Amino acid sequence: MKSAVGINESGVSAKERWGKVITKRGTLAGMILILLVLGILSPQFFAISNLLEILKQGSILTMVALSQTIVLVAGGFDLSAGAVVHFVSNLSAGMISGGQHVTVVLFMGILIGCVAGVLNAVLVNQFKIPPFVATLGVMFVLAGITLAYNQGKAIPLKGYPEFTYLGQGYVGPIPFIVIVVMAMMLAMHLHLKRTAAGLRMYAAGQNPQAARIRGISTSKSLFAAFVIGGLILGLTGVFHASYNYGSSAVASGLDFLISALAAAFLGSTFSKTGELSVIGTTCAGMFIAALSNGLIINGVSNTAMSGILGSILVISVILSVLHKREIGQVTIF
Amino acid sequence: MPLLHEVDQAGAESSLSSDSVLVCRDIVKRFPGHIALDHVHFEVRKGEVHALLGQNGAGKSTLVKIITGVYSYDEGTITVDGKPARIQHPKHAEELGIAIIHQDQQHVLQFDVTRNAFLGDELKGPSGLLDFKRMRQLTEEALRRIDADFTADTPVGELSVGQREQVAIVSALLKNPKILILDEPTASLSNREVRKLFEIIRTLQSQGVTIIYISHHFEEIFEISNRITVLRDGKRAGTLTTSETNKEEIIRLMIGRDLTQLYPKENLPCGEVVLEVQNLSQGRSVHDVSFSARRGEILGIAGLVGAGRTELALTIYGALKPTSGRILVHGKPFSPRTPADAAASGIAFIPEDRRQEGLIANLTVKENMTIANISRWSRWGLVRRAQEKQTVRDMIEKLSIATTGVNQLIQNLSGGNQQKVVIGRWLTGSSDIYIFDEPTTGVDVGSKVEIYHQMTELARKGAAVLLISSDFEELLGMSDRILVMRKGRITKQFEAGEATQQELLYWSTGGEGPQEEGTR
Amino acid sequence: MSRSATATELAASPSGTRLGILRDYGSLIGMGLVLIVFAIVKSEFMVFQNILGVLTQSTILIVLSLAMLMVMSVRAVDLSAAQVADAASIIAAASLIHDLPVWAAYLLPVAFGLIVGAVNGALMSYLGVPAIIGTLGMMFVIRSLELIYTNGGQPQILFTLPRGVTEPFLYLGQGNLAAKLPFLLVFAVIVSVAAFLLRERSVLGRRMDAINGNVRTSFLAGVQIKKVFASAFVISGVLAAIAGIVITSRTGIAVPRGSESYLLEGFVAIYLGTLASKTNRMNVVGTLIGALFVSFLNNWLTLMGIGAEYKNILSGCFILIAIAIGALRQPKS
């Protein structure tokens, strides 16, 4: 099997194998090191209340990242992720302040998320629109609908304890939202790593030709991935409104997207083959939340934050593609 | 010697035997421009190892693709285990118990052996989750059976090509096939791995599995097969019982007709050495190769699939990095980092895989033809379109390319005309070393003649031409000298007029020299 | 996948026939019809002053879309393009505010664009980072740098500076040639012609076409793929920076993050532009038409008092429709 620039692949050389080991251990070690340094510089970082806050923040981010992960695994890409979250968030805030019950709102979130997923999947599978374009279009549309709904203003939620429990409440010492994220992660892990459907999703994403030869429908796998991902995004939207005490005015959600992608790719550096995994994504997602928190505690301004996140994203990807020797074309067009 | 009759020995052919596991009768398969299979009978008995032989283009792979459901067929019938079957899809063939191991099986490299083996036919436990324990167990068993030196947990990406093939075999074995087709299975295997493969084959045979074995390697065929069917030019040339025939007879069946006057080769005076290769090695594909090529000569490079000829060419051309050795062009040391370097130094390369490596499918004839030397029409960085168009038109005429115009999409041309465009790409420049890798596969006869004509022209104008080919007729008709490669080494160099088809085949398949252990 | 008989007929029609003309030029005719409808609904749309204003204003989007087009023509994407424009506009303004000569206000932003382009090229071409990730990360790094420099987003204002200083600079965006012809319009034509020559008529452009079509074949044909791939990013950076200079020159003010919305509009322009090509190829002329269409659409929505949300929804729908039409036009191989 030749890569575009013609590498003679007859097994991996010892040097390459060592490179991968260093990368894998290195990423984990690096992450722990960075957090330790941040904590030593500002010990409040390690305060229990702060750590819990990190977990809560990280949960929202991780949820989006989990959704993006499963879609990436199956060979797709979801630019509309952030827009779905914001749309559902706004809708939730609106419905709650309009007196709706929490369970109704949750149901709505799941439904809308699934619909978005189905829409994306149909555009890609039936209309043969490349995932990047399809989800870009859906993002536009959803952002527009969100703006139409909230007229460009945030919808604050004050005094709805039943609802805000979702994002801010605790079960004993553990934040409820963390339990939800862990449940999501476990369910997805089970699906991706322990079921035939999950295995086929990985195959569809990594070598669609090999999958098709064995009679697997890659479009079915992509469909399922988008729907599951959409479902998660829908839930995330509801939790977002809860955690933030309302929805935000922003609509396109590109900021969510970058954190989600960063978490997914960073998580992939944990596996020796550079494979995406939900556990890796979750760890990376929590790390990014911890990192943001730690930087802010240490006085780094908000303005520098996105730049630092961007750099982390790029560096983690460099680490995982360094052993290949191809140019970074994007095939999702 | 009869040219096109079917030559069979008594008892070798029996189409109505009750222990036939597969009967293909009167199979016809047409492609635009030629008939790939012309009323072919092919019958395989249960539990035998049946070898299928034929040169490139004889129809072997077409027949196999029909049996495995990849191609449809236009006429004829297929019977599997006594029941008529219309095989329309690979999965369908699999359900009928027909499995195939290709040379480059597609695997998901990040998965381990177990997952690749069971992908598509996964085993589930009572809870609906994957039963990894059992899958791993079965995979380990299968691996033990073939005495593999890797475990079921190894990521396939870390395995060598030979080992990946073993994974493919395991994958097929797990489906308990009735018929196992092995397509050139030993091309990348070391001798030790080949021995293992034969043990597996014998074991399977004793368990009632039927094997169809496709290969050019005669010593293997004579060791392992019970019967041999030879295809030639889309027809069945004969079916023989292995123990009652010999290599010469098989070769005669494979080659058959006389050399027609297809080859406009002339004896040209050869000039100075322009390309010299000294002790060149590349990875596991090329070992210690040394030869030289001179102006005005056509140097044929013979060998079978997996002999390392393409890798040799790619190394000279800068697409692969040599492990050791030297290359000299015009007497000066030459170490290209990319094909761009090689092209700038006057080397032209026409790749084997026209579709993936020779064409840019979505572009026009003109764009495909001018890409290599585009800077020749450059003025201040812009392309001089009128001159470019004219050059392309001239080339189209010179090569007799059948096209509606310079702006026709190249994917709409026939294979032969596409190949002419690829060749024309280099003719617009000033290369003096041309490497052709299987230039006439899938090319109609008319275009073939054109291409041969061009090669001769190039040699006449003083270029050195390397012709890699699996078609011995072609090599003999076109080449001055011929190198024969096998498993990465040159086994024999023939001077002009010395070689015969039999000798080429002989040296490509190992000759009588001492067997080397392993390919390293 | 089955398609209706009419779709197949449409795709197979030869170019001269009525059906063929519909297929080749139908979308452009459609866009024209939409604009005519706009004019009927709102007569102010058709006023000469308005049209001239839109054309002039559209220069920004035109230049930025062309920047993005360069990279998309080699199967990559430059998500940092709008951010480069954003930052370049600030650099231009800052140069004048800091008493640098006018030529510095033109040159420094371009140098910035060049550097960013070079870094992008190095990341994507030589290190092999997938363009989506690399340029996304770059976008956020630039954003952070902008916010840090401008103390959290302070607009850089030019009209408080003495006329003598700013007038030469503002001529680009606000000056008129004889007979009230805005200089910027002429500038747009110059840049468009240059982009056209570079992308559609130059040796580099041919090589870009080649690596877009088949990297392996181009490699074996002697094209220096890493150089060509990297060049696309460099050109994009420079063009994006030029767009930024135009922004400041036209408005007299540089607002950090104010130009980010051009990114998504650029995508719309490029994808709409594929309809102008018989083979759905991304091209300069089509992108120009697309950018003009988007600009006129925005203008009409503003005149109608319709908010940003509908702009988003319409943009999303247009993208999807454009690609779907494009897919229908192509007979499937």
Descriptive overview:
The complex is a heterotrimer of chains A (333), B (520) and C (333). Helix content of chain A is 72%, strand content 2%. Chain A is built from 13 helices and four strands. In chain A, the strands form two sheets. A two-stranded antiparallel ribbon of chain A has the order 1-4. In chain A, a hairpin with a 2-residue loop joins strand 2 and strand 3. The model of chain A is unreliable at 1-12 (pLDDT under 50). Among the domains of chain B are: 1-96 and 221-255, P-loop containing nucleotide triphosphate hydrolases (Rossmann fold), CATH 3.40.50.300; 272-346 and 431-445 and 462-511, 3-Layer(aba) Sandwich (Rossmann fold), CATH 3.40.50; 354-429, no CATH class. Chain B is globular and about 70 Å long. Chain B starts with 6 loop residues before the first strand and ends in a 12-residue tail after the last helix. Chain B has 520 residues and is α/β, with parallel strands linked by helices. In chain B, helix 14 (415-427) runs parallel beside helix 15 (445-460). In chain B, 31% of the residues lie in helices and 25% in strands. By secondary structure, chain C is mostly helical. Chain C has helices at 5-12, 18-41, 48-72, 81-97, 102-126, 131-149, 163-174, 183-201, 203-213, 215-220, 225-251, 262-273, 284-303, 308-329, and strands spanning 156-157, 176-177, 181-182, 253-254. Chain C has a two-stranded antiparallel sheet. In chain C, helix 4 (81-97) runs antiparallel to helix 5 (102-126), helix 12 (262-273) crosses helix 13 (284-303) and helix 12 (262-273) packs parallel to helix 14. The chains are: A mainly alpha (333), B alpha/beta (520), C mainly alpha (333). Chains in contact: A-B, A-C, B-C. The interface between A and C is large, with 61 and 57 residues.
